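Morning!

This is the sequence you dropped in the shared folder:
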Amino acid sequence: MPSESRRTALAAAALGASLAGVLLWPVFFGMVPARGDLIDFFWPMKHYTASRWLAGEIALWNPLSGGGEPWLAQLQTGVFYPLDLVFMLPLPYSALAAILLHMALASAGMAAWLYGLGTSRAAALTGGLLYCGAGAFLSLFPVYNNACTAAWLPWVFLGAHRVARGANITAFALPCALSFLAGEPSLAAAGGVSAALIAYGTRGEGDTRLHRPSGSGKRLLLGWLLALGLAAVALVPFVQLLIDSGRLVGATREEALTRPVGIVDLGDLILPPTAEAVRTLIPGRGSYLLSLALGPAVFFLAVAAGAGFPGRGRLLLSLALLAGAGLLCSLGASGLLMPLLYDLGVVRGLRFPARWFVFCHLAIAFFAAAGLDGWVYGTFDSRTSRWAARGVAAFSGLLTLVTLLAGGLIVGRDPWRGGAVVASWALLGLLVASTRILKWPKPGQACPAALLLVALPLPFVARDPLELVPLDSVRAHAMRDLGVSKGPVFPALSDPSLLTAFIRRGEQPWSPESVQRSVAGLAGYTNLYERISSATSASPIPNPKRTRLLGAALVGGDLTTVFALAGVRHLVTPFQVAVPSLKLARSHRGILRYDIPGSAARAYFVSSVRPATDDEVFTTVMRENLLKKDLALVAPAPGLMASARKGAGYAAARVLEDENEQLAVQTSASEVSFLVITRSYDRGWTARVDGQTKPVLRTNLAFMGVFVPAGEHRVVLTYRPVSFLIGAGITVLCLLTFAGLYLQGPGAAS
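The structure's back. Tokens below.
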């Protein structure tokens, strides 16, 4: 990156970080960002991952959630995402650092991309601030992995632009790889493909060199493949998890279309909502992106985008098409595009279409930045400038008309915030008119003044997605207060409908009090704060076998016997449970702890084993108590036969080591016996009995089992999935390739 572009990117990063500081300064007084999934999902998840790095471990497996679950493979856990190392800091400073870094990153990338295309520095900084500091981007932070990936998108577009013009392919590969590792693969994939196509389609536009580089398509393809290879250490396990969980074939059409951008949300682009409006369920307002707040000044600037980039008509058209596609996808069923893509199989396994609005937001910020130069320096003589002005004027005019005149859309608009953005628009119009007509102030002074007029309202207008709550009100001491020293526990609030019923209590969908209640009830991953094992998982890709087993209690099975089979010791719930065999042991602040009698140990022997299909296991679990029958049902496998201990034999097991990715058990048996482990089954587990490999069998639908010979033995189970080893090998090879290409300098892999 040239030195001038580097200085522009650094200035934009500083402005983005400053904006984050303005939004989050109460953190230094014990506040913490808590909207959406931050408190009960992302913050505990990220801190757990960071704690494993501090212990010198790679978090391949998490034994504390879902009876154990793949952790690296979840992808959004960010095990190999370098910017997640800030979570080695304690809350709330880790959250502040994480948001600050990604706002700075997003601002710097957008500014570097714009400046590299030829805008003024003030215009580039304007684009950077509009991208990182407006409602759509800030609304991605409550679903944190989305914001992390979105922060890399401008760098992906910049890298593709540079590679298409002869730069080293590492400029495209690195940000693409990091966008995947950041945790939202669908945005990363769409961003990388879009950037490559746009860069290839506009590769000669605006290029004044006599000798243009050849092979741009091949170079972009190689850069994309290198990016996938760099991220393979996480992507290969992720793909394996998708296959094993059935997520790609099991996601329904309703899941693919739920929580889109609503028509009321689009009004936020012109007039920002009130703080109460984004806390309340309003017809026509979505709930995934809390606010799209921008203001009319941004669209006023965007009108002149063609005048700012008179020689880049194909680039502007490509970004407009990308914005249109992002908008239609974000509207879900109303936009018609997502249902079509679902029927074609393109978006199977994806949820929450509102996230796709980020591409529309990126294009709007880009157009506004170019338009600043257009108003100050450009003319409207070219076909590009005229068509761009018409298109943006038509779009923004329609938005304004709908916002101001359509019934219901004026409801929930903040007059103070609205006044701020309208005043900014009016002052910006006067500034532009004065510069173009009166020739005062001069362009070099008008651009920084316009930057201030656009940027100053941002903290006031779009701060709601980063709303904070007192840290003391959400500190997790639920298990200590309830007298739980170890698990597994079963939190009833892992069920979304029960969680919603408990935290709302007839109030707004979100409030500081609702956050406190969700933490107290061990919702999400909050069990990780106290290192208590939970039988449930908050993962969006849960273990379907374990989910089905625990669900047997809801469709006719006995709750106590099902929980006992899964090794659950305590049921934690805010609701009274009318099951005679459950004992109410303690209550604290409305949360009840019930003890489960006769729960299975972490490792135990059974006297008889027989093969059974999943349906047979499910039916048996609902009707019989397998623990009392001393029976294990094993998924059919080659050579597996029913067996039972003969006569008055004995078998005993004692857990020696219970580590994150390893479990060691000392056994003693009079004859060949079957050892059941109540950790969730995964194909990545291997078993060794005195050093000799033994097959790990899926037992009782969701757990593990191993045949152990007679006598005394040491059984060691280790989690080293083949997908991780393959992915790590690919990544190492690609890192070596990356280093070699980088050292070759410009033109590598041409």
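Headline: The radius of gyration is 28 Å.

More detail when I'm at my desk.
O.
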